[in-house]
Amino acid sequence: MNKTEHQFSGWQRGSAGVLEEILPLLPANIRRLVISLDLKLKEKVEEVRIRQGKPLSLSLAEGDILISREGRPARQDSDAYLVTPADMESLINLLSGSSLYALEEELRSGFITLPGGHRAGITGKAVLDGGKVKTLKYLSCCNIRVSREIYGAASEVLPQIINKKCGGIYHTLLLSPPRCGKTTILRDLIRQISSGAPAYGLPGLTVGLVDERSEIAGCCRGIPQRDVGIRTDVLDGCPKAEGMMMLLRSMGPQVIATDEIGRREDADALEEVLNAGVKILTTAHGSSLAELAERPVFSNLIRTKTFERIIILGRSRGVGTIEDIIDGKSLRSLGVKK
Amino acid sequence: MIKLLGSVLIVAASGLGGIAVAGNYSRRPKELKSIRSALQMLETEISYGAAHLQEALSMVAERCDQDVACIFSRTAAELSARTGLTAAQAWEKSIQSYYKESALKAQDFSILRNLGASLGISDRTDQIKHLRLAMEQIGSENLRAEEEAARNVKLWSYLGFLSGFLAVIILY
What we know:
Chain A is of the alpha/beta class. Chain A contains 12 helices and 16 strands.
C-alpha cells in the first residue's frame, strides 16, 4: 500500500495566533500564564483543560502537560497552578458572554461553541427534568478545544473524489479513528467543493451541511466561523437524520455533507438522500474497511456499495496521514501518491 | 449702590443654590423610574427573547429613556470589546461613572450594584428573580424619593431665596 505523509503541523500558519483568539475568554490569572508560555509550545496546544481545584493543564499531540505558577511547564505536580473557584466563575462568565441563561440548550449538549469556531466542553452537576438533562449547574470542569482551520488539508483527497464524467463528486466516506484529522479534512473538502476547484475542473457545487455538533462550520449564533465555502448552507446543531431530510426538502443541495454517521436513522436518511440523486460526503469512526463492515449500520451500506470512494485516515506519520483510498465499487485500493 | 448690587448677588446665589438642591430632589424619582422601566425591558429581552446579555443591553439602551441609556450602552460596549471583563465588572464600571453625574443616592447605587453581581451567571428563572427584586427595590426607593421630592422641592426653592434675604437684612 502506498502511503503519503500529511503532517498537519507542517501546514499550520500562525498557529500561536489561533490560541490568541481564546485568550479573552480565559480568566485573568490563567490568561497571564498562557501568555507567558513559550511560543513553540503555544503552537502545539490542542486543548486547555481547566478543572476547579486541580492543576491547569494543556493537551498537546504527544500528551498533556501541567502549567506552573510561573507560566512554564511544571516539573512536578506540586509546582502546578491550581485553578481557584474564582477562576472557574470568571471563566464561565467569559465563555458564556455573561449569558448563561441563553445557553441552556448548549449546556444540555455539554459544550459551547465559541467565536472563532473553538469549543468549550463543560461538566458540572446535571439538573434533571423528567429523567432528561435539563441543564447543568455547579460547573466545575472545562475543556477548551482549539480549532485549527487548515487550508489545503484536503488537496490530496479532492482529485480522488471528483467524478470527471459528470462534473460532480463521488459518494465519499472518510474513515478514521478519533483525532486523526477527519473533521479538518472534511471541512476543507466542503470548502473546496462549495467554492469550486478550477485546477481540477470542478465547478462550485451547492453544499448542504448538517453540523450536528457545530464542529465543522463552528457556528456561533448561526454564523459559520470557519470557511466552508461560498455555496454552503449550514444547518447548525440539528440531528443528522432529520437535518439531511430538511436540507433535501428545502435547500436543493447537490451535495449533502455531515460528520460521524453511526446510528440506524442516519443510514436510513443517507439512503433517502441517495434516492434523491444528491451526493454524500460524510465521515465515520473506524480504522479499516473490514472493521467498518462488521458494524450492523455500515454492513448494509458497504454491501450495497453505497459509497464510491472510501478514504482511510490515520496518524502513522502525523495527524492527517492518508493511509488509503478505496474504490467503493470494486473495494480495491486506488493507492495514494507519494 | 455697591451694597445694593451685593445684596442682589447674595439673594441670587442662595436662590440658585436652593433651586439646585430642589432640582436634585425632583431628578431622583425621574431617574429611578427610567431605570425601573429599562430593567423591565431587560427582563423581557432575557425571558422571551433569550437574547445574549450584550445584545439585550444594547437593545434596552436604544429604547429606554436616554438619561439612563448610558448605563446599558456602556456595559454592552465593554462586553463587546471582549477585553476579558465579566458582566459584573463591566456593569460596575458603567454604574460608577453614571452615579457620579446622577441624582441617585447611595442606596440606589447599591441596588444596582447587587443586581450586577448576578447578571448573566444563572439560568433564566433565576435572572428574572434577580431583575424583579431589583425593580421592586427601585420601586420602593422611588416612592420614598417622590415623597421627599414633594416635601423638599418647594421648601428648598423658597429656602434658598429666603435665606438670601435674611442674610441681606442682617448685613444691612
